[in-house]
Amino acid sequence: MDVVSDAISAVRTGRPSSNRLRVGGSWCTRLAPYEGAGFHVVLAGGCWLVPETGGEPVTLGAGDVVLLPHGAGHVLADSPGDTARAVPFEEMRRPDGGGDGREVELLCGKYRLDRSRTHPLMAELPEVVHLPNRVGRHPELRSAVDLLANELDERRPGSCLALPSLLDLLLIYMVRAWMSEAETGSWPSVLSDPVTTAALRALHSDPAAPWTNDRLAAAAGVSRATLARRFTALVGRAPMAYLTWWRLTLAATQLRDTDAPLATVAREAGYGSPYALSHAFSREFGVTPSKYRVGAGSS
């Protein structure tokens, strides 16, 4: 696994959901804050997105994609003016448009995320990631948008499987596109540094291996001192501290998503015994692995 795939997999739960919205004329709808990530794809027409967190209104055109990675509440409307007129998204009932030639069609959806184990790459995404439809930019994202538009007809054979899979792909492409254009945040720099990237790829490829600073430096092709300096400066943690955090994150994911015995979870996370895992896990999460599993299952 690579870092971006792991960062997304660590927080993703369940399957994404989506709704097609077709409106026209004067309209305004509010989407409440959500414990996950929201997204919109403008299939036709244009509209405005007004963040409730105080950010500037964003104008959206046909083919634009927007990701709200922290589930911020926001308003979608025909204009950025009076948002007090907004009705809850669930009450929008205008599937046939307004009939005035200014119809807007959007695919609006949500990704379910478990924020208790958010990877720092995902945590530093801005409140709103706007990816305009520009010729020649992010061709894989544009292809995913085109495929999504074609799969929205539920009468097409296999659409019920194709649509969630395409939405998962869309999330990856949105994060990739942000990383390629980001002017802030440390992780685009982390993954453009060959030494740090090599070390992270080694750790993520086999987190249960008996890693040491010397062994990891050899895998990255640099001295131990060079690895420690560059890795810590860019990632914000020393290599072995990052490895410990990532192993516990993987253990938490297994505890939530599987019924694997604690001994299996410990072994696959790189711990020699259930006791060793329990000690480290309790220190990181404040609960034992068994209590964490019970809580995750009831949430």
Descriptive account of the structure:
The chain is built from twelve helices and ten strands. It starts with a helix and ends with a helix. Helix 3 (139-151) runs antiparallel to helix 4 and helix 7 crosses helix 8 (224-235). It has a five-stranded antiparallel beta sheet with strand order 1-9-3-6-10, covered by helices on one side. It has a five-stranded mixed beta sheet with strand order 5-4-7-2-8, with no helix packed on it. Helices cover 44% and strands 17% of the residues. Strand 4 and strand 5 (58-60) form a beta hairpin. With 299 residues, it is of the alpha+beta class. The mean pLDDT is 90.
Architecture blueprint of SSEs:
Blueprint: H1 3-11, E1 17-23, E2 28-31, E3 36-44, E4 47-51, E5 58-60, E6 65-68, E7 74-77, E8 87-88, E9 104-112, H2 120-123, E10 129-131, H3 139-151, H4 159-181, H5 187-190, H6 194-205, H7 213-220, H8 224-235, H9 239-257, H10 262-268, H11 274-285, H12 289-298
Helix pairs in contact: 3-4, 6-7, 7-8, 9-11, 9-12
